[in-house]
Structures are given as C-alpha cells and as structure tokens.
Amino acid sequence: MDAEKVDNDKEAMRWGLTCEKGQCQERINKNGKEVVQVCKFKPTIKHVEDKTQDSLSCHYYLQKYDALVSKHSLWNYHAFFTIMKYNKKLFADYLNRKVTVFDEAHKIEDQIIQFVGFDIFAGQVDECNLSTERYNFTDLDSMIQLTDDIAFSYAKKIKDIKESPVFQNNPDFELITGLERRYDKAAQAKIDIIADKDNFVVNDPVNDINGNFRTISVKPIDVSKFAHEFFETEYQVFMSATIHKSSFCENMGLEKDDVAFVDTAKSPFPLEHRKIDLLNVRRLSYGSTEEDELEVIKTIDRILDDHSDQRGLILTSSIPRCHKIIRYLSPKNTRRIRLCHSKNKEDKT
What we know:
Layout: H1 9-14, E1 25-30, E2 33-38, H2 45-49, H3 59-69, H4 77-86, E3 99-102, H5 108-112, E4 118-121, H6 122-127, H7 140-163, H8 165-169, H9 173-195, E5 200-202, E6 206-207, E7 213-220, H10 224-227, E8 235-238, H11 245-252, H12 290-306, H13 319-328, H14 331-334
Parallel strand pairs: 3-8
Antiparallel strand pairs: 1-2, 4-7, 5-7, 6-7
Helix pairs in contact: 7-9
C-alpha cells in the first residue's frame, strides 16, 4: 500500500492518519473487481507466537498480538473491550485467562456504553441508498426504522451479489464478509433496542460545518444487560477508590452474593499529605499554544521556589515537554531537575 508521508504529527492526527506505512486495509480494483487489500506489514498472531514476524511488521499489531500470546498482559479498556466485543471467537485460544484486574473500575460503565447500542454514520446511509430526510433524528421509533432499513439494505446487497453471475464465477468473499458484518451489527442493534425500548435514548445528531448529517447514536441507559459479555474470566478484580458495592453490582449486572467487597476504611496517608490544589493555570493538550505552555512552566518555577528545600515529582505527557520545562525554568531550579523515563524492551520510552 502506498502512502503519502505526513511529517507533521499534529496534522496527521487531525486527518486521522496513524501510520506511515498506509491504511490497515483499503478497497482496490484488482482484475476488474473491487477487493479489500490488507496491509502487507500486518503480521499474523501465529507469527508473533512463534517469533517469526518480520522486523518491518506493524508495531500496533506486534504489540497487540504480543499481549495476547503473553501469560500476563496490560490493556487499556477500549482495546480490550474491542476484542471482547468483535474478535472474541477469533482470539478465543488466547483469552483463556483465570483472572482479570480492572483498574479505575468506576469508569467501566462509560467504556462499555461505547460498545453497545448503535452508531449510524453518513457513509452507511449513503452506502444503503437511503435519504436522511425520511427520518426524525429525535425519535427512537424513527431510528429503529432507520436501523431496520440499513439491515434490509445490506441483506439485499448480500443476496444480489451472491446471486450474480460475476460472484458465481469468481466469488469475492472478502466483500461479502464485510457486508455480512455490517448487516449483523444493524440487525442485532434493532433486536436489542426493540427488546427494551425504554432503556434506549437517541443522542443529538452530529452535523458537519455545512449542517449535513454525519453521525447519530442510539445508546442504552442501563448497560447491566450487556456487561457480562465483556467479563468472562473465572475471577475479576475491580479496583477503584470511589465505587459502592450495591450500585456497582446493579450497574454491571453482578449478583451481590457472588461479589466480595474489600474496603480500606481509612487512607494510610496522613491528611496533610493528601491535599490537592487545583490551580487551573492552562489546559495542556495537542492543541495548546506556546503561551499556554510557558504559563504553566512559570507556575512550576514558582512552586519550585516555594519548596526550595523539598523534593517532588513533575509528571508530564511527553519527553519533549520535559525538555521544554527544563529549558524555560530558572537556572537555579533547572539544576534541581532529574529526568526519569521508563523504556520498553525495544529501548523506547
């Protein structure tokens, strides 16, 4: 796959580009027909398991598959739930774990809700030759109808393609698989919503700058009926400083008698060491200005002055930001700073 190099990381992220090697998969015309081509740099999980992967293989899939084949692995919620929701059968042999530990468990409900319900995109509506003007985007019944129409359209496409002479002579199973996957999602969403309509709400539609429809979501209020599919190990440990047993069990669809609650009634840290001062100087993100960063660094410098005889930690989001802080601190405080970065097995931070 050929790709146009984008040197500016911020610009690449703004355009949704994540890899200089190209797209993970793209539709191309091959021998007169449209097929889905998978990136040649994508390894198989068997390659990773047998340690026979190419040195130029995609770093994302190398890390993902390395985590799956390892005895112990660390995941963020979105990556793990994506596998549990969409690729559970594919990776079943690698998901047979006895214990799963979920940190920041009070955020799990918000993570699960991203994987249930149904997201409808303008591209789907166009692909199914439907008109958004036919539907009321504030009405649940109308969204159920749209979901049903999308499922019907995909079902008809699948039927027409399979019955066509072109497919009979030279079947394109990759195309059919993609359409079947989209049909399954729409059909299952309709079943879930109709089964418990009072549990679903329609979010406000998102439009582009010209007011044209981009996407809309139909999401459940209560995720307890769907949570079980994400937690299948024999034991699960949910860690949080703010969860309540009864409400957590109710939200996650867990039986209280099956759950042991371990609570630390009192923090082991002295009260004076638990103080948090929210200064709210500036918000630092990818879009922060030079002025924002310098204002924060000035505040760090003042804090260092106020605690000239004490040690502390400055936590940052990147190595460049660490060096920038050092560059703009006063000389006396610069001499106090020591950088500390962890590295992975490839010696990268």
